[in-house]
Amino acid sequence: MSFYFAQAGNNVGIYASTVDEAIRWTDQVWAKISDTDMWLNIMFSSIRILIIFIITRIVIKVVSRVIDRSMARKQEGKIRVNPRRFVTIGELLKNATSITCNFIMILLLLSEINVQVGPLLASAGVLGLAIGFGAQGLVKDVITGFFIILEDQFAVGDVIQTGTFKGTVEVIGLRTTKLVSWQGEVHIIPNGTIASVTNYSMSNSLAVVDIPMKADLTLDESVHLVKQSLAGIEERDLNIVKVPDVLGIQSMSTSDYVIRVVAECMPNSRSSVERQIQGDVKKILEYHERSKLAALEQAAAMDNDEGDGAGGA
């Protein structure tokens, strides 16, 4: 009987200690909740975090606008430059500004929540050094991309060819360049693999058209017809800078000869200008052929009429 009373006493003691612990935990929680200083610190930290975020966004917007205005003033200057280069450089500067400001903002936010930033920066430096040794190809891509932009080798919107890839430059990054071919294929090329570039957009193109002529046409007639077909072509096709030149005979055989026409045109418009010249010359030759046939038919009809009249007399 005394054993049961002792066991009951022990259970009561355990329950009492558990209740005391629960009361102490509740008191601690309530003390934390009712701690005015803690809530003031949280409120001020939240306000500082919000202010840091807003200031970062404002700085990015202001710097981006300053970059846009600076690029616009450069384009309106007296020195003739490629405007697409300023677009490329402007986008690169804005991206660098955004990355830098966001990185600084993250460091400030971590310091606001009592995270030690120093060890993180040291670890990031060691990690960056290790990555630099292990990612030599990436470093080569970045350095090559920097010099592509600095030396203005090509810009966004240019038509270039590097290796077997040809297309319009859509994006120039520090690591890769994106080309879109005329068939819509997208080529993403690491900058480190770009050894040589042919840029078709840096200067005017030269359209060269070889026009075959029949041997029954004299050279003067052929040149006259070609020049007649090219009259006013610079108004029909605005890509043509000046009136095309008829150079003369390029090659000849016993049955025909070839007349060469050259025309200076805007960059990347050579193919369309050549088609325009060929179409205009084709139309004038067809018109000349029809006129010649009509004249022959009319002459033959007049001969028939004269022959019939003579026979009737």
Automatic annotation (TrEMBL):
It is found in: Cell membrane. Coiled coil: none annotated. The keyword Cell membrane applies. The chain crosses the membrane at residues 38-60, 92-111, 117-139. GO terms for cellular component: plasma membrane. InterPro entries: LSM_dom_sf, MS_channel_1st, MscS_beta-dom_sf, MscS_channel_2nd, MscS_channel_TM-2, YbiO_bact. One of its GO terms (molecular function) is mechanosensitive monoatomic ion channel activity. It is a multi-pass membrane protein. It comes from the Bacteria. Residues 138-201 form the Mechanosensitive ion channel MscS domain. May play a role in resistance to osmotic downshock. Belongs to the MscS (TC 1.A.23) family. This is Small conductance mechanosensitive channel. It comes from Paenibacillus polysaccharolyticus.
